[in-house]
């Protein structure tokens, strides 16, 4: 069964779409293997110091990010959809097993489509309201997610 990611709403959502020169299977590995994800997930000088991925709908998606001044962000979410080498959807609004968890900030999807030279990579961050979208934009969504994608590509090219 194929899952259709949410419909992009420019009032509420942010998108990063780019063609990268690595095949979907390597992008998928970089996204779904914790030891690989930890190498690229956080734009430097931040680092991802822990990662857990239970790769199934309802499974845990946890990352721990640490900043250069001792900042720490421990985020646990839930995978909502997993289509091998094609789609990953996760949220911080739910915990593992779809259990409600606090006040979620976003639901995100990563879609991979094979192209002649690699992968069309589309990441969408969905927010509950315009204030959350604006907050995410002001936190540097486009630069941060774009830098992380550059780092992902570098990791994937080394596989």
TrEMBL record:
Q: Identify the residues that the record assigns to the Activator of Hsp90 ATPase homologue 1/2-like C-terminal domain, covering every copy.
A: 22-156
Q: Which InterPro entries match?
A: ASHA1/2-like_C (IPR013538), START-like_dom_sf (IPR023393)
Q: Which domain of life is it from?
A: Bacteria
Q: Which Gene3D superfamilies match?
A: 3.30.530.20
Instruction: Name the protein family.
Output: Belongs to the AHA1 family.
The name this protein carries in UniProt is Polyketide cyclase
Lineage start: Bacteria, Pseudomonadati, Pseudomonadota, Alphaproteobacteria, Rhodospirillales
Residue stretches spanning the membrane: none
